[in-house]
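I'm stuck. Protein, please.
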Amino acid sequence: MRTSLKATLAAAVAVGALVALAPAIGQDRPESILPPGFGDTTPSPAPAQRPNAPANAPQPTRPITAAQSSPPSSTPPSPSSAMIQPLPSTTPDGLPVLPPVATPSPVDPSVLARYEMPESARRSLETVGPLTASEGGLETDAFGDADGQYVETLMRRLTAPLPSRWMSILLRRALVSHVDTPSHTNGADFAAERAWLLLRMGESVAARAVTQNVDTFNYTPKLYQVAMNASLATGDPAGFCPLVPGAMRYAPSRGWTMAQAICAGLSGNPAQATPLIATAKRRNVASGVDMLLAQKVVGAGAQGRQAVTIEWDGVDQLTAWRFGLAMATGVTVPDELYASAGPQVRYWQALSPSVALGDRLAPAEAAAGQGVLSSAALVDLYAATATDDDAQSGASATANDLQTAYADRNAETRLTALRQLWGGKEAEPAYARLVLTARAAARIDPASGKADADHLVASMLTAGLDRTAARWLGTVPSGSDAWAMIVLSDPDAYRRLSYGDLASYSGGAGDSALKQRMLFAGLAGMGRLSQSDIERAAQTLGVRIGAANAWTRALDRAARDGQAGTVVLLAAIGMQAPNWKGIPPEALYRIVGALRAVGLDGEARMIAAEAIARA
């Protein structure tokens, strides 16, 4: 009996697997190939709960594949009477013979999942996210008792990328944290909204990590769609292969139909991939460069035996489908096509290991300025360029200057190399170059770098080197940009500043009036001014820090309730502008104060100092 039961279970599992893996090409209604253009702010379809099939529900009909030329006969041939022999009633051992067991019906995937993954290994949807608090993430109760629909709406309406590097870094940290799912939302849908926002920020690797933190049998239609986008943004079409059976059942689309053929090719099964591609062509599931890229991925699999040439003539829009499959197959996307997409696609390109080193440098600098790449990662990229024989002369020169700025024994030589990296002695350096030189700037002695203190301090703070920058406080002139950034970022500040200290700041280079207001807003939010000085400066500078609206009330309420995650989202919403000049000082005051109220003091100081460097 034990042997028969084991055979029955094995048969059930095999049949269930065949049903789950059966291709579903028969989709006559055309749908938009996934994903849509980068301008969309919310994934489609709308959030939906994954249906649970009742135990007695009829199983779906298996579609006919191209290899199945005729349906099987419904009636098996009858054996002749001469061939019919009576079954023995006992075995040679004297045990009774069990009656034959009927072929089992297909096993429901939810039941099958229990055998594929034991309960102890399954991850709960109550808490989702790859980054725990011990690893630098927010606490699990970061959203407190906030309504999940409200939190998802905040994420969906947030326009990214943001103008602030440090705000972007903090937002990424909040979105990837291992946090409790708020009420009135599904954990998988909540993960999908987080990953979708990360993709719009350019954080393709982080978005994929969030989607992969949900077990596949818990996926919802929304998460299926976002997971495909995340795999494409990382140039990894093989990443959505484990999702194909469930996606074709719960969220069928033209993208997933093409994924069936792609995954068959990547698994080394061209005999299955070829007819799937042919059927997709016949049904007009995809065409043009979308179909050619899919064929090229299929051909890249084991035993693919086909080469496809990609021509971009006539293509005027870069979608995630085209970007992802091009990255996966080493196809170069024309520069003019990147202009048809949002800036986040350049950050995806910077994170893609399939892009040639020389082609990654420009997008990598842009990504570092946005916070997608760290200062150390950008330095490593240029260090690799120094040993690359195919590197262009400009990239090699930058790598050599960077090496000099870090390692030369002469302080003046290091300063000269830093000025060269910043564009010249009198030039205003690009913010990405300040990120690149952060740790090289930290090696400069304050006594020898007075003339370049503004840029050196700003460069150090891009990497969060606040205590290193604070060593310059007694060296830099009072009222300079360097002084303003240090008094905002100093983690060990022990006294309040006076109105006279604030009035001594002239605003430095750039928009001096805006920078004066930003310094006041930052100091007031940090609690570094007395109440009387705050009121006096607010009136003098025309900063209405007491103005209230729906955003300020929501931010104050979230800070009062200790909802760090909600505070981060609302703070990001308050910074939606093309650049720092579009961020009101009143908003900076509210943001800094709210972040400090929920224990995010370091990020509050860095954001306030960044305002001086970039306003």
